[in-house]
Amino acid sequence: MNIDHLRDFLCVAETLNLTLAAEQRNTTQSNLSKRLRALEEYLGRILINRRVRPVSLTAAGEEFVPKARQILSEIDLFKGASAPWSPSEGGITIVMPHSATVAVLPQFKAWLSQRLPGIHFAPRIANHDMAARMLARSEVDLALVTRHPRVPIDEAFTVFQPADIAADRLVIVEPPNVRDVEMPLHISHPLTYIGQIWDTCREALPATVEVPHGMAADIRAQCVAGTGRGVLPESLVEADVAAGRLAIRQTTADLGFSLSLFCSPQASRRAKRIWSLAVECRDPQENVSRIVQPGRS
Question: Is 186:217 a contact under the CB 8 Å cutoff?
Fold first, then answer.
């Protein structure tokens, strides 16, 4: 087994499609299947049920997803400590929720590269409360934080000025053509900020039970597999909706939110410049950010 086998497995867990996963991993479906079986043999557990279409995760596979992510996260942190863009060598430390690393950070980096070439980020993943503590203690340079007008942010953030860099919204997604069939509703855990937005602004749905998750990627995987509806940031499921794998259920709930950049008191000079650029980019007439636009990758 090698580290790539873990990345192969997580790609399949997120797509639940061997063909698509093989494309994303730049290999053939045959090679991908061999590597997955090598991982299963190493662990002594069957992780993927290949007898159904689309493929699904076994109970062991579901259990292994967070473990695989943790292993890769620990390895990335270890590697990052000696990388050229590590904090000790000038990298900008930035903390954010996991979903922002997929939907917002790539666009933000592309925008920034045109204004401050040579900037490298050392991302940290943390929930809302932990990010607030890290920012207040200047353990990171920047924090990228979800904000909703009806859900209070942590008190530690209130002493800092936000620079809004993106707008998104929560959407209710479901398998196509399910109409009003009762299904489990997969949601973010109520202790997460996204979970609090849903808890505050929720609306009634034909659901048998609400299933909380710690990772938005897990909710998406359940929805793509057809096991229920899910409440997710629209930016995470745009490709699935466009491809017909998921449909957005119409809602009247106020589920729009902003992603705001905060700068710590002892941030590096370059980090403060990044934050200043984000503030300057806001359109005062339309009161929106011009940095990360919905519907763009």
Answer: no
